[in-house]
Amino acid sequence: MLLWLLLLILTRRREQSGVAPKAVLLLDPPWSTVFKGEKVTLTCRGISHSPAHRDTFWYRNEKLLKMKYNAIQITESGNYQCETRESSLSDAVHVEFSYDSLILQASHPVFEGDNVTLRCQGKEDENAHEKVYYKDGKQLPNSYNLDFIIVNSVSRDNSKYHCTANYKILSIVSIKRTSKYLNIQVQELFLHPVLRVSSSTPIEGSPMTLICETQLSPQRPKVQLQFSFFRDSQTLGSGWSRSPKLQIPAMWTEDSGSYWCEAETVTRNIKKRSLTSQIRVQRVPVSNVNLEIQPTGGQLIEGENMVLICSVARGSGTVTFSWHKEGRVRSLGRKTQRSPLAELHVLMVKESDAGRYYCAADNVHGPILSTWIQVTVRIPVSHPVLTFRAPRVQALVGNLLELHCESLRGSPPILYRFYHEDVTLGNSSAPFGGGASFNLSLTAKHSGNYSCDADNGLGAQHSHGVSLRVTVPVSRPILTLRAPGAQAVVGDLLELHCESLRGSFPILYWFYHEDDTLGKSSAHAGGGASFSLSLTTEHSGNYSCEADNGLGAQRSEVVTFSATGTSRNRTGLTTAGVTGLVLSILSLAAAAAALLHYARAQRKPGGLSATGTSSHSPSECQEPSSSRPSRIDLQEPTHSKPLAPMELEPMYSNVNPGNSNLIYSHIWSIQHTKGNSANCPTMHQEHKELTVLYSELKKKHPDDSAGEARSRGRAHEDDEENYENIPRVLLASDH
């Protein structure tokens, strides 16, 4: 007996724990209410749905019966249960053996959501008619005068059903009878779910698994269920799911609360809820805070982006990160997130961003600081500026010139290189920043363009070109005299040429005669400068010149010059002064005779026209007269052939060569060219040279005693009155 009691206790514990499925109790006939005197067979089925032999335990009103067979017959009312070794205690089934003449029967077994058959049965059923069915005192629709009805989708709601029927006695009297109230015994389709959790006190940030555990009735193994999970009335996940399991990736302190689950049938509206479970998420304080700089090492170039990474080795939940720089009161930035690390981006760092940094992390337990990290910002060099430093404003040959190159920005050390016309002169380093210099002892070859570049390993920068002009003082000039002949005479044009072989331009040259300034001339290029004199007897003496380009004048050596007193023109013409007039008159007479002879000849065919003019215009056959007389050698032999006859017209022009004592009248000048010969066919082809005839008159000299006073007062009139215009004649002897 004690053994049976122990087995019963263990079985009920298994039922409470939900480990073993319940056994199923079946009725035959399948009615839970029968008339007294009838028999009902009870059958107990386990998990295998096969009858159990000699291992079945029966209970009536929770009392163990001695019967061990899987099927028994009963005749007494009561609550019957059974169990097997492989299943837990079945639900209780109340079997009623009634003494009433009218009973309401319900089919068995009935599960939640099933349709149930109700039958109103009389003991003498052939006399019962007009049967009516009721639920909770209200007549069910469409239930009049039916032997049985079907109630759809019943539930375990404790509703009470009954029926009525009329009985006829002796076919005369009709008596209405009412059955007892019936509670339909609806069995659970599935057990109430139980929420299982992987931990009731998870660590913040750790995952959590929720399982909604239930069990279908062995008689309804194909019913489909769906599940949903809740926290404090808030649905978790995506809502209803066929899976009884929900995986939460990470739990946080705000996830603490009351959890439960629900299970329901997919096709029937049967829903059950589990009991609530309290879950408290535990937080771990942060520790081992670390700050990392990218680029690695904290070495940055101005303009790059910097990333400050703050991380914690341990710590859960929401962590607040902050970044700080030495010397600043306010933080550089702050972030709150569920992560063991956070980043702060500093865009385009500047020189002022260099310094020491640290970060802090806090998850409500107080901030934890990292160690300090040094950040260095290197600055590329700016375009350098090249300047010259010399003792004077002008750079002179022999001066010491300092070339100074400096970049106003750039991290040291800086290497400077110096160039002249793109040729490297040298280099100099500035280990602590600033500029650097390079020295030159100037020569004339150092003129040109200079530049420099600066480089601190972050990219070289080149300066603008700067032009330098090295000024060279003039050397001692050389004075040379240039005259027409070996012996200079009065009236010659004397050229004084002064030249310094060395010196920067422009050079101003001064010319002196016995220390008296004659004039000046400037030279903007090589070759020196000249000054011209028309010689007189007073021009004999000492000459010198001076050169100056602003760096100090240099004087030439003295050159002595002597001019002969007699003019070159007067030497050949003085003896002919008396005979000149006579020759002029004779020339006029000869010209007149020649004209007369030529006029007669032109009257022949091919000669002059009736008007007496040439068939060729003067512009075609003549050249303009020269403004300067040309010398003629009167001893030159004449041509053996006479000139071709042509009509000549007088032309006069006066020539006075400077300060000469002679005046010439330019009588005629013809320049025979090939063009002229073509236009003037009457001319002989051999006459191609210039033909000039002068008449010489002596100019009155101011030293003449007779007209000395008068000529001094009338200088201009003397110039006009001492000219004599002589008509041009073409001599046969002229060439």
From TrEMBL:
<dbReference type="GO" id="GO:0006955">
    <property type="term" value="P:immune response"/>
</dbReference>
<keyword id="KW-1003">Cell membrane</keyword>
<dbReference type="Pfam" id="PF13927">
    <property type="entry name" value="Ig_3"/>
</dbReference>
<keyword id="KW-0732">Signal</keyword>
<dbReference type="InterPro" id="IPR003599">
    <property type="entry name" value="Ig_sub"/>
</dbReference>
<feature type="region of interest" description="Disordered">
    <location>
        <begin position="698"/>
        <end position="735"/>
    </location>
</feature>
<dbReference type="Pfam" id="PF17736">
    <property type="entry name" value="Ig_C17orf99"/>
</dbReference>
<feature type="domain" description="Ig-like">
    <location>
        <begin position="21"/>
        <end position="98"/>
    </location>
</feature>
<feature type="transmembrane region" description="Helical">
    <location>
        <begin position="576"/>
        <end position="599"/>
    </location>
</feature>
<dbReference type="InterPro" id="IPR007110">
    <property type="entry name" value="Ig-like_dom"/>
</dbReference>
<dbReference type="GO" id="GO:0019902">
    <property type="term" value="F:phosphatase binding"/>
</dbReference>
<feature type="signal peptide">
    <location>
        <begin position="1"/>
        <end position="16"/>
    </location>
</feature>
<keyword id="KW-1133">Transmembrane helix</keyword>
<protein>
    <recommendedName>
        <fullName>Ig-like domain-containing protein</fullName>
    </recommendedName>
</protein>
<dbReference type="GO" id="GO:0004888">
    <property type="term" value="F:transmembrane signaling receptor activity"/>
</dbReference>
<keyword id="KW-0325">Glycoprotein</keyword>
<feature type="compositionally biased region" description="Basic and acidic residues">
    <location>
        <begin position="701"/>
        <end position="717"/>
    </location>
</feature>
<dbReference type="InterPro" id="IPR040878">
    <property type="entry name" value="IL-40-like_Ig"/>
</dbReference>
<dbReference type="Pfam" id="PF13895">
    <property type="entry name" value="Ig_2"/>
</dbReference>
<keyword id="KW-0675">Receptor</keyword>
<feature type="compositionally biased region" description="Polar residues">
    <location>
        <begin position="610"/>
        <end position="629"/>
    </location>
</feature>
<dbReference type="InterPro" id="IPR003598">
    <property type="entry name" value="Ig_sub2"/>
</dbReference>
<dbReference type="InterPro" id="IPR013783">
    <property type="entry name" value="Ig-like_fold"/>
</dbReference>
<dbReference type="GO" id="GO:0009897">
    <property type="term" value="C:external side of plasma membrane"/>
</dbReference>
<keyword id="KW-0812">Transmembrane</keyword>
<feature type="domain" description="Ig-like">
    <location>
        <begin position="384"/>
        <end position="471"/>
    </location>
</feature>
<dbReference type="InterPro" id="IPR050488">
    <property type="entry name" value="Ig_Fc_receptor"/>
</dbReference>
<keyword id="KW-1015">Disulfide bond</keyword>
<dbReference type="InterPro" id="IPR036179">
    <property type="entry name" value="Ig-like_dom_sf"/>
</dbReference>
<feature type="compositionally biased region" description="Basic and acidic residues">
    <location>
        <begin position="630"/>
        <end position="639"/>
    </location>
</feature>
<dbReference type="GO" id="GO:0007166">
    <property type="term" value="P:cell surface receptor signaling pathway"/>
</dbReference>
<feature type="domain" description="Ig-like">
    <location>
        <begin position="193"/>
        <end position="271"/>
    </location>
</feature>
<feature type="domain" description="Ig-like">
    <location>
        <begin position="477"/>
        <end position="560"/>
    </location>
</feature>
<feature type="domain" description="Ig-like">
    <location>
        <begin position="285"/>
        <end position="376"/>
    </location>
</feature>
<feature type="region of interest" description="Disordered">
    <location>
        <begin position="605"/>
        <end position="644"/>
    </location>
</feature>
<keyword id="KW-0393">Immunoglobulin domain</keyword>
<keyword id="KW-0677">Repeat</keyword>
<keyword id="KW-0472">Membrane</keyword>
